[in-house]
Every structure is written in C-alpha cells, then in structure tokens.
Amino acid sequence: MSVTAFAIAAFAVLLGACLQGALGFGLGMPGGPILALLDPTLIPGPLLLLATALTLIVAVRERAELDLSGAKWALLGRVPGTVAGAAMVAYLPARILALVLAGVVLTGTAISAFGWVPRPTRNAVIVAGMASGAMGTATAIGGPPMALVWQDSAAASRRATMSAFFLAGCVMSVAALTVSGTITPTTVVSAAQLLPFLLLGYGASLLLNRHLNQAKLRTLALTLSATGATLLALRQL
Known about the structure:
Layout lengths: L2 H21 L4 H11 L6 H17 L6 H24 L2 H20 L8 H18 L3 H7 L5 H25 L5 H27 L2 H23 L1
C-alpha cells in the first residue's frame, strides 16, 4: 500500500472509530467501503480485529448502561449467522464479497434514512443478531441490523448494549475466520498498523459526545457510509 493510500485508510479508521465511540456503530459502515477500495485484503480480517478492540473499549466505558437481556437474544442469533458469514468468505470471490459489502451498507443507510423503527421484540432481536453475524463475519459490518432494532434506546444504553454484543460477536467471527484460514499473521500486522488511529478516533468521540448531538452524528455517519458504498459498488461494476 502506498503512503497516500495508507494515510486515507488511517483517516477512515479514525473517523469510523470516532463515530462508533459516539453512536455505538460506525467503524465498518464508513470505513469498510473505503478500506475495500484501497486494499481488499483489509476486509474482513484487519477491520474485524480493529472492531474487536474498539468494542472492548466502548463496552468497558459504558458498562453501567448495559442491557444484558437484549444482548443475550441477539447473541443467540449471532451464532448461526457467524457460521454463514465464514462460509461466504471461504467460497465467494473477492469481487462478490465487495458487492455484498456495498449492498449491506446501502441497505442499512436507506432503511435508517427512511426512519423505519421495528419493535425490538425477542424474535426481531434474534433475527437481527443472525443478520449481523453473517454480515459482520463476511464484511466486518454487522452494525446496521442492530442499530435498526435498538435505535429507540437511550444513547448510552445503545452504545453499551451494542458494544457488548459486538465484542462477543467479533470474538466469534475472528475465531471462525481463523479456523477457515482467513486470519493470518499478515492480517494481525495490518490491523496493528492502523490501531493507533483507531485509538485517536475513540479519543475524539469523547469530545463529540459533549459538543455534537446524536442526530447530526447519525446523519454524518449515514452520508459517509452511502458515499463510500456507492463508490465501491461502481468500481466493482
């Protein structure tokens, strides 16, 4: 990767970490399409490892607001979803995975933009967890289904519950991809090179939480996500 490409990747990770630290999701949606455009090998492994680190930090910070009852049903659905996602990575060509990633992001942003708010029933949370597991393992972007089903939660509770769910889910996905041979020492090195920018983005999220409202942050996250996913899809086509 060239110096310019690495600088863009580092900024994408920083921005995504900042948004996720403030909203409870955002690392993969803006960052995923950009990283895939720069270097397809950064998806899903390195981004998934970075997501694991970030969700651990946010879950610890917001642990007092954690809703375990919601997270446990989501995790029940995450298990079969993770298996399906690992199979997609193992058997689908990189080009198809990139189109899947773009489609996931565009669908998530469209649903969020139109304001559909499903009731967070037990079955809805399980189905969302299953979709999140498949998408998160295959593309490192498992946020849209959970953000959709938990969007009416208080900001702190949403960040805490989503981070706890994503932490456990990321561990499942990393384990599945390691078994399938997708996570390698090179994957770990790539993630480590971007880790400082992840931490900087998280630090910036603490300032955003104080000075910007959630609606503005959400609009920014959706706009960046849709733009990146559109560019990625056009490049594949």
